[in-house]
What we know:
It comes from Alicyclobacillus mali. By secondary structure, this protein is α/β, with parallel strands linked by helices.
Amino acid sequence: MRIVVGMTGATGAPLAVRTLQxxxxxxxxxxxxxxxxxxxxxxLETQLSLPDLHRLAATVHRLDxxxxxxxxxxxxxxxxxxxxxxMKTMAAIRMGLxxxxxxxxxxxxxxxxxxLVLVVREAPLHELHxxxxxxxxxxGAVIFPPVxxxxxxxxxxxxxxxxxxxxxxxxxxxxxxxxxxxxPSSQRDAADESPxx
Length: 197
């Protein structure tokens, strides 16, 4: 399996890192494209360097390389996830403004009718954000805000991140071991839970 991973400068770098780790662990060939601001956010939100991030991917493409393999529909992939996805990138995809490789690869993914998952990061949302989301959803993209779940009783930030990433991977028919609704959780002992958690 081959998945393109775009990473923009919106907050949420740990989600991108965990997504790449999970895909690597599942044996998926990943093609990573980072925006310039994604590199800045990575430094602010994680302890990883850019070379550390690159080592998690099978192939790394430059943002300005519109001759890269993933810029063509004839290069077969199983879809693309942009995690996190900034409002700027989402707007560019909606307009078909393929001025960098993340947007071009997303455009290719849509035109080839492959899964495109946009892990959009912004709050609150104004009308233009919502219009862009609606237009892209109609075009076939999955709009996936990284909404927190609490039914699995997360105890750590890693629990929260893993649950979100597990749900992202579901969109590609992939599975990682995360708690799911309706499944018993042997890792939770009600006796030591606080009233809220």
